[in-house]
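step: validate -> pass
step: tokenize input -> pass
step: predict -> running
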Amino acid sequence: MASKTIINNSSGSISYNDVTITPAPTPSGAGETIYVNSSGTGYISQAVSSTFKNRIINGDMVIAQRGTAAVTSSNATAAYAVDRWVMYNGTAITLTAQQSADAPSGFSNSLQFSTTSAMNSTASQNIYVIQRVEGYNVSDLNYGTVNAKTLTASFWVKSSVTGTYSGAAALYPVAGSSVTSYVFTYTISQTNTWEKKTVQIPGNQTYAIPNVTNGVGIYFSFDLGSGTNSESSSGTWVIGDYNRTSSTVKWANNANATFKITGVQLEAGSVATPFEYRPQQLELSLCRRYYYRLTSTGYSNYTTFGRGMWTTTTNFRFYLKFPTPMRATPTVALTAATGFVVYDTASRTVSLISYYSIGYDGVLMTATTATATAGKAGVIQSNNSNSPLIEFTSEL
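step: predict -> pass
step: emit ->
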């Protein structure tokens, strides 16, 4: 299919590759594209930003700050195998997820799910993977108006189980405390073969996106075998929290099954454009808005975490500035204080570490150390035999 960028169109027809369209479809703004097929039919895709057309972060599953080891979910626990994608499993049977090096051409990673036993969810048990898209990143979609924009989702999937699958876009809360959902379907035709899928999600003209700042704007999920309470019709916005239909595949009901996904893109417009490859450092920075960790794992012993000074003979205070402002004030998790030392002219053991004050752009922390000189400067490091971890979480 050929395409041509139209800046202005004052004539009654256009011609491209010897195909003439009369009357010519007219773009509403510079940078929109008219797509022409061999029969002379044309249609318009909406203009998109060249730097952030994909509203999904880490759609190619490359960033895995928490590590690449397999993670599990059961009994309504959530788990992250790669950044921004959280799996949820309401059953007591273990679901495993892991970053995989198996990917279609043009990609290096995928997100892999696997079962060992059939999970057989009950009516109220949900099994899915979801990305919660921040409101700032979908604030331009004009939901709740007649100008609500269509979204197009494209992605690559590979599964040991064929059939028609489902996913959903959802808004919450609307109409008080309700959810409105749009269930979409796609078909996997061949086992263990990478296939590209494209679905359209029409803009919701009834309900506005409930949060267009730093809260959840849109919930975007892929169902893996949720219960009947999550079933609805597909292809229309409905009130209720749904992510599947009654006839779509319950992948998790299969023992020793695998499901892999990558190249997920969610963009404004009715045409799926090529996947937006962003520089790795930019994608990492986008992920760090929601999760950031400091660790010595993979680095040398005595890795430096921060610099500060002793405010008393045993109280060492240091400031950590986040590499990018976080979405909101994060929660903090720490490994045992014994994994740290503070060094000036000698190593001082640490018996307690905590944060003193915290904001979206950094944290002031305190370490209780062996006796040192008040007012003296030092650095806090990992010790020689442990791999300490400080992590900051501001996920949606």
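step: describe -> The CA atoms of residues 194 and 356 lie 49 Å apart.
step: cleanup -> pass
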